[in-house]
Amino acid sequence: MVNPQRAWETAYHQLEIQLDPASFNTWVRNTTFLSCEGNVFTIGAVNSYACEMLQGRFYRSIQRLVSDAYGHPVELRFVLHTPRVEETEPDELPLLKLLQQKERTPDLPPSPLHRQVERPEYQELTGLALKPEMTFDRFIVNQANNLAYQAALSVAESPAAIYNPLFIHGDTGLGKTHLLTAIAHVCRQQGLRVIYTTGEAFTNDLVEAIRNRTNAMFRERYRSADVLLVDDIQFIKGKQSTQEEFFHTFNALVQFNRQVVLSSDKHPSEISALEDRLRTRFQGGLVVDLQPPELETRIAILQMWAAESGVSFSQDVLYMIAESAPDSIRELRGYFLQMEAKAKLNPTGFTRDSAQFVVETYRRPRQQVTPKLVIEATARVYGLQPEDLTSKRRSSQINLARQVAMYLAREITNTTLNHIGILFERTHSTVLHSCNKIAEMLECDEILRLRVEKIRRTVREMVE
């Protein structure tokens, strides 16, 4: 069990990230940890109205965060507390001290302004390590990814000159990380200051900056980059403080002609709980997608890997591996590594039958989670019939359950917003609004969060 003071500070920083800036600044920022007796935390607020709001509207959210940080369920008590302001003697006032110092200091030629300002020292933020093998030379180009490849190459050769921002989207394992890393390699070779990171790492860096009160250093690090590449930017959705910080970072970089490259598993218009001002900026540059490679491209990739690793496979074995992973280069890599290990252990006896055995052993049966399955699980948890969720009925319970089903159908299936709208007989904008609304409610509604988790468990049980 951690120190109560430390637990409150941890919860305080989490609240700064989760709440919108107006709510946090109005109700939480000036609170003070006073004491902890047993499991009752006493927190001071600056006025009685703040006490009422914290004890009422925000109580459950704060209680959950403090309990998680403390490692034990707690109760909260908010009381009126006005911090004591110590009186300052006149001779201690900074201006008087400065004047007194000036009287004692002989007149000297003024130093340049940049030498007068004390700048914080910090370790260089280089972002995540770059994988050396992810270069443009090792990216197999085909019709499905040629546009994304050419755009990435143009950005690497002339940052901020053509496409800014560049937004690359596509399913997992199709080469988004490879292209971002290849851009980073080329830009670093040009002597540019490059930061390659992920949406999750950016969020974690911000949390650390808030906790350590080094926000200014955090901003200077990211905003002084010549090229900023953020993989999986969809991670910042629903995180208001992170989106606020990234919005200003994005603006600062683009305004000063610095290159921004982003990747996501979805088109910007389909990322739920993403602020419109970020969505429009992401779409303000070039948006390109990556599609699964065709069979010939997958075979070419396997041939490149085989040549690099020094193993030899027959054409029918390569064809079998390529057929086993039609949708993901990452999955294709997994099959190849299995084959490579077996072939090196038994170089003379590795046949097509051996390859077939490896494929069948490695493959995991894919359980398809469909929107209809999500609708059925949601209806079961809410005590409704599946047809209730797709009907025109508009009771409050059915409306909420319908919005939850839309949200989960978008989150845990690969279904587009348009197709979800067809299933529910709703428009694309209605589905997007429902997804955004549920994502926002999950930030502060503990009951809804538990119910959504129960639906997720129900879906998993139904496909097992």
Explain what the structure shows.
With 464 residues, this protein is of the alpha/beta class. The protein has helices at residues 4-18, 21-28, 48-55, 59-70, 94-104, 113-116, 146-157, 176-189, 199-212, 215-223, 240-255, 276-282, 295-309, 315-324, 329-345, 352-362, 371-382, 386-390, 396-412, 417-424, 428-442, 446-463; strands at residues 32-37, 40-45, 75-80, 166-170, 194-198, 227-231, 259-264, 286-290. The strands form two sheets. It has a five-stranded parallel sheet with strand order 5-6-7-4-8, with helices on both faces. The chain has a three-stranded mixed sheet with strand order 1-2-3. Helix 11 links the parallel strand 6 and strand 7 (259-264). Helix 9 (199-212) packs antiparallel against helix 10 and helix 17 (371-382) packs antiparallel against helix 19. The two termini are 38 Å apart.
- Average pLDDT metric: 83
CATH hierarchy: architecture of the largest domain: 3-Layer(aba) Sandwich
Tell me the structural class.
alpha/beta
| Structure summary, number of beta strands | 8
* Helix content, binned percent: 55-70%
Number of helices: 22
Query: Can you summarize the main beta sheet?
Result: 5 strands, parallel
Reading the helices and strands in chain order gives HHEEHHEHHHEHEHHEHEHEHHHHHHHHHH
Number of domains: 4
CATH superfamily of the largest domain: P-loop containing nucleotide triphosphate hydrolases
Low-confidence stretches: 86-99, 102-106, 108-125
Please write the CATH class name of the largest domain.
Alpha Beta
Distance between the termini: 38 Å
CATH third-level topology of the largest domain: Rossmann fold
* Radius of gyration over all CA atoms, rounded: 28 Å
If strands are numbered along the chain, what order do they take across the biggest sheet? 5-6-7-4-8
